[in-house]
Amino acid sequence: MPCRAVIHAVGPRWLFGLWAERQDNLLAQAYLRALTLARDNGFSSIAFPCISTGHYFFPHERAAGTALRTIITFLTHIAPDMDVYCFCFSRRDALIYRRILEEHHCPFLTDDES
């Protein structure tokens, strides 16, 4: 995928429910910092994988909810013209993201439409 730059966003390691709210906030901050850097550098789009759900063991449903709430809030209040893409490498994650986006009445692209 061609791009002008790469912004590394490192999310928190899930501590099996310990300090769950803090972990949610750290994950939201990872997305928010990347979104802000993209906006501040004049990027019109940014793409994210499902941060922290692999080797950092963040629960998929919880991570998707945190990611999408952060992204939707950012787009609504700060950068409505930015395009944000969420890449889901598993069918499980794609279904979770699709369901949450549908609940928020947000548009989405499937792998057939991208």
How would you characterize the overall build of this protein?
This protein has 114 residues and is mainly α. The chain has one domain: Leucine Aminopeptidase, subunit E, domain 1. Helices cover 46% and strands 7% of the residues. It has three helices and two strands. It has a two-stranded parallel ribbon with strand order 1-2. Strand 1, helix 2 (60-77) and strand 2 form a beta-alpha-beta unit. The longest helix is centred in the N-terminal third of the chain and has 21 residues, at 20-40. The radius of gyration is 14 Å and the shape is globular. The relative contact order is 0.16. The mean pLDDT is 93.
State the share of residues found in helices, binned by percent: 40-55%
Tell me the Rg in angstroms.
Answer: 14 Å
Strand order of the largest sheet: 1-2
Strand content: 5-15%
Query: CATH homologous superfamily - what is it?
Result: Leucine Aminopeptidase, subunit E, domain 1
- In the CATH scheme, the class would be Alpha Beta
Main sheet properties: 2 strands, parallel
Q: Cα distance, first to last residue? A: 12 Å
Helices and strands, in N-to-C order?
Answer: HEHEH
Protein structure class: mainly alpha
Detail the poorly predicted runs.
Answer: none
What is the number of beta strands? 2
**Second rung of CATH, namely the architecture:** 3-Layer(aba) Sandwich
